[in-house]
Amino acid sequence: MSIKIDKEKCVGCSKCANVCPGRLIYKDENDKAYIKYEKNCWGCTACLKECSESAIKYYLGSDIGGNGACLYVKQKSDELNWHIIDNDGNETVINTNRKESNKY
Ligand code: SF4
Ligand code: SF4
């Protein structure tokens, strides 16, 4: 499992890098975020919750049946909208209160 960052969407705010507990996210020469040491990502989703541009996707590993299934977050006022895309491309959205998001 790991994340992927869409450099087209990234605005270089550094919020993802600042919250990553493993210090796995860096910025390139164009001020775009990227993950170093992908294998060390343990999927805490902290970076997804911080990205206002929905530039980060979290992928389940093929070892646990991921096969392209992924997750990304959209921020909406006091909500976080968790978009879950399964192996067949079907999308499910779960909404959580931002203030309570660390419960999940
Ligand atoms: S939080 Fe999102 S927009 Fe900000 S640096 Fe990270 S990927 Fe880019
Ligand atoms: S999911 Fe967690 S461990 Fe992985 S890059 Fe994001 S903040 Fe770091």
Give a short summary of the structure:
This is Dissimilatory adenylylsulfate reductase beta subunit. Keywords: 4Fe-4S, Electron transport, Iron, Iron-sulfur, Metal-binding, Repeat, Transport. The chain is 10% helix and 34% strand.
Architecture overview:
- By secondary structure, the protein is mostly beta strands.
- It has one domain: 2-Layer Sandwich (Alpha-Beta Plaits), CATH 3.30.70.
- It is 10% helix and 34% strand.
- It is built from two helices and seven strands, in the order E-H-E-E-H-E-E-E-E.
- The chain has helices at residues 15-19, 46-50, and strands spanning 2-5, 25-27, 33-35, 56-59, 70-76, 79-85, 91-97.
- The chain has a five-stranded antiparallel β-sheet with strand order 1-4-5-6-7. It has a two-stranded antiparallel sheet with strand order 2-3.
- A hairpin with a 5-residue loop joins strand 6 and strand 7.
- The longest helix is centred in the first third of the chain and has 5 residues, at 15-19.
- The model has no long low-confidence stretch (mean pLDDT 91).
- It binds iron/sulfur cluster (2 copies).
- One iron/sulfur cluster is lined by residues 5, 10-16, 33, 50-51, 53, 55-56.
- Residues 5, 10-16, 33, 50-51, 53, 55-56 line the site of one iron/sulfur cluster (SF4).
- This is Dissimilatory adenylylsulfate reductase beta subunit.
- InterPro entries: 4Fe4S_Fe-S-bd, 4Fe4S_Fe_S_CS, Fe-S_Ferredoxin.
- Keywords: 4Fe-4S, Electron transport, Iron, Iron-sulfur, Metal-binding, Repeat, Transport.
- It comes from Asaccharospora irregularis DSM 2635.
- Residues 1-30, 31-61 form the 4Fe-4S ferredoxin-type domain.
